[in-house]
Amino acid sequence: MANVADYNYEFYNVTFPAEYVAHVEINRPEKMNAFKEIMWLNLSAIFKSLSHDPSIRSILLTGAGPRAFTAGLDVQAASSGQLSAPPTSDAARKAVGLRRHILEFQDCISSIEKCEKPVICIMHGISYGLAIDMCLSCDIRFSTETTQFSVKEVDIGLAADIGTLSRLPHSVGNHSWVKEIALSARIFGSDEALQHGLVSRVLPDKKTAVEEGLKLASLIASKSPVAVMGTKEIINYSRDRSIADGLNYTAAWNAAMLQTQDMKDAMLSGLQKRQATFSKL
C-alpha cells in the first residue's frame, strides 16, 4: 500500500481506496475547485510521484464537493499572478516570460498524460475551461447526467492554451463540433459529450460515477502492470503518428516486454481458471 504521508499536498486529498488504486481529489470546493498557481504545481508533483510509485497501478481523479469538478482558472488569482506579463516594457522579453510560464503550466497538465498509470476522470457539476484540459489528459472520462461542460477561454479573452485545442480534435474526431464549442464557449451537457466521444460513460450522479470509476480502476489494477503500462504508452504514441509508425513502435516495445514473467503468469492463470497475481513494477 502506498504511504498517505507521501502525498500531503495543499488543495488535494490523495487516498488509496482499493489495492493498487489511488484516488486524487481536487479539494477547494468553496471556490468550486478553481485553480490557482500552487494547485497546478501540486497536481504535477502528485502525478509524477504516482507514476513511479510501485504500489499504484491505476488512478481516479475527481473534484470535491457537489457543485463542480473544477470551474477552471481562478481568474481573480490569475490576474495578479500567472496571467501577468513580466515587468518590462520590451515586447519580446514579455513574450519570452509569458511563453515560459505557459509551457510550465502545460507541463503540469501533461503530467497526467505522461503518468505511467491509467487515469480515470470523473466530471460532475461545473466542468469548465481547465476541466476540459485536464480530462483530455486522462485516459478514461466519465460524467454525470447533470455535468455542464464549456471550453470557456474565449470568454476571458484567451485561446485555450493548456491542451484543449491540441487534444480535443484527436479525442472526438469532429473538427466542426470542436470549433463550435471552442469558438462559442457555449455550455453543453453529458448527452452531447457522450455523442461526440468526449466521455465514454454517463452516470446518474457523482456518487454512482465515483463508484463505477473505482470498480474500473480496481479491475485495471488487477491486470499485469507491465501490460497496462505498455498499452497506455503505445496508444498515446500511436495517436499522433501513422499506423506503420505505431506498429513499428509496438514491435520494439514488446520485444522487451514479452519477456516478462507477467505474461507467463497470466496465461497459466487462464488455463488453471484462477486469478493471477503480479509483482510490483
From TrEMBL:
An example molecular function term from Gene Ontology annotations: delta(3,5)-delta(2,4)-dienoyl-CoA isomerase activity
Any single biological process term in GO: fatty acid beta-oxidation
Entry keywords, A to Z: Acetylation, Fatty acid metabolism, Isomerase, Lipid metabolism, Peroxisome, Virulence
Keyword Lipid metabolism: yes
Pathway the protein takes part in: Lipid metabolism; fatty acid beta-oxidation; Mycotoxin biosynthesis
Compartments reported by the entry: Peroxisome
Top-level division of the source organism's lineage: Eukaryota
InterPro entries on file: ClpP/crotonase-like_dom_sf, Ech1-like, Enoyl-CoA_hydra/iso, Enoyl-CoA_hydra_C
Chief location of this protein within or outside the cell: other
Cellular component aspect of the GO annotation: mitochondrion; peroxisome
Keyword Lipid metabolism included in the entry's annotation: yes
Family: Belongs to the enoyl-CoA hydratase/isomerase family.
Descriptive protein name: ClpP/crotonase
Species annotation: Ophiobolus disseminans
